[in-house]
Amino acid sequence: MLADVGISLQLDGTLALDEDRLNLVVSEDMDALGEFFTGNGETPGMAGQLNETLGQLMSSNGVVENSISGTENRIESLVDRHGRMEQSINATIERYRTQFGQLDSMIANMNQTSSYLTEQFAAMDAQLGRN
Description:
With 131 residues, this protein is mainly alpha-helical. Helix content is 76%, strand content 5%. The protein has four helices and two strands. A hairpin with a 5-residue loop joins β1 and β2. The longest helix is centred in the last third of the chain and has 66 residues. The mean pLDDT is 88.
């Protein structure tokens, strides 16, 4: 174990080295320390295990590749969603412009009708002798 050679895992996830413990292991049993890292015929050692783990992580169906693929798919999905949303917003804006144009036209017609009716009532009042 790493703790046996003076390497420990801290609470924040970093590794700490106990130099006194490492120096003791180096001075007492250098062959065992070498075997710990490189392994022997039966066990792969820390370097072999690390190589195997990294191989699994970096393989074509490993965590890294799956994360990259998932992120790329998410980006594509978000780009598509953004495009659809932009089209929807543009369609809504165009619909509002059309409605505003129609409303503006209706108000102009109502103003004309109001002016016409005002003139007609004024003419009627004049014929009847009212001011």
